[in-house]
Amino acid sequence: MGPFKLPSDSVAGPPMLSTQDKTRIDDTRIASVRPLMTPALLEERLPASPAHLALVERSRQDISNVLQGQDDRLVMVVGPCSIHDHDQAIAYAKLLKAEADKHAKDLQIVMRVYFEKPRTTVGWKGYINDPHLDGSFAMNQGLEMARKLLLDIIDLGLPVATEFLDLLSPQYISDLVTWGAIGARTTESQSHRQLASGLSCPVGFKNGTDGGVKVAADAVVASKAPHAFMGMTKMGQAAIFETRGNQDVHIILRGGKVPNYSVADVDAACKALEASGIAPQVMVDVSHANSSKQHSKQIEVAHDVAAQVAGGDRRIMGLMIESHLQEGRQDQKPGQPLQHGVSITDACISFAQTVPVLQALAQAVQQRRSRA
Ligand SMILES: O=C[C@H](O)[C@H](O)COP(=O)(O)O
Ligand SMILES: C=C(OP(=O)(O)O)C(=O)O
What is the distance in A from the centroid of ligand 2 to the CA of 209? Predict the structure, then answer.
């Protein structure tokens, strides 16, 4: 046997068979393929202005400073579980902007603008995947609506946070994102860790849905390192990306089989981080399994975490709150109008309930500062 040769090295090899009819064995479960615009085309239509770029750059740096211990504020990721309506999101953003200004000395507030929903089994997958909420999967419109909303929120002077779930969608919107999350269902995914290693924004990794913190610590280690992987350029071409690694990464405690926001849980998480050679710092998600999915419990959890902060715990660098214009959640029912300002995914606290929580957290930061 001669030395191994790649097919592309063969001068006189077997005839190439790429024109053979393979319909019996290839794409047999693909129902349809529709065109998708390129990220470059979307950016051409909806470019970021110098003012947008300045806000994104400044707010990313603010969060980086918190992570590097140079800013003692709490990073607050606050907003709806999911976006399903542009105008309602803008109404929320205007209210949140007033709170962001009021607490700017103590809280770095970033609005949750989540377009992609990871589902436990099946369900609506978000504003990009199905922007008309009707199973038409108009993703070109979804991308355009998502990018327009981000620009409009940034125009109000508010930075945005989102979850990166799809591996191609970041090319369309990530230039406008100040902070990104990798969710509990994807923290263990190598592809998402690689993505995070190349993202330009700070990124938080949720602990696993079972409560496992080690997977999030491993994700932090992995995403700090450089990687090489396959992706798509802004021009829509397949490409090999080589990343530099992301130093602005941290874990998020979101609970699992049981909540994990107590002093003992924060201690245990920080020990796991230190064992992996990572700085002991956590964001606490007061929703999801930390609120046992009961939205009003978020208030109690946030006050508990505020007490830890007020007691001087510098390891808590931020919180996440699921909050909408109105409290609760609603199911989408065919032919029935949706209630205004109510979540169609996880239940949220109302904006009115959010205001005193932010106030309490700002006070907690002041108390922590005065102890230092
Ligand atoms: O935050 C949203 C949900 O908790 C997550 O997407 C899972 O939702 P599901 O269990 O309703 O599918
Ligand atoms: C899906 C979310 O959270 P988790 O990944 O923790 O379930 C979310 O924050 O919207």
Answer: 9
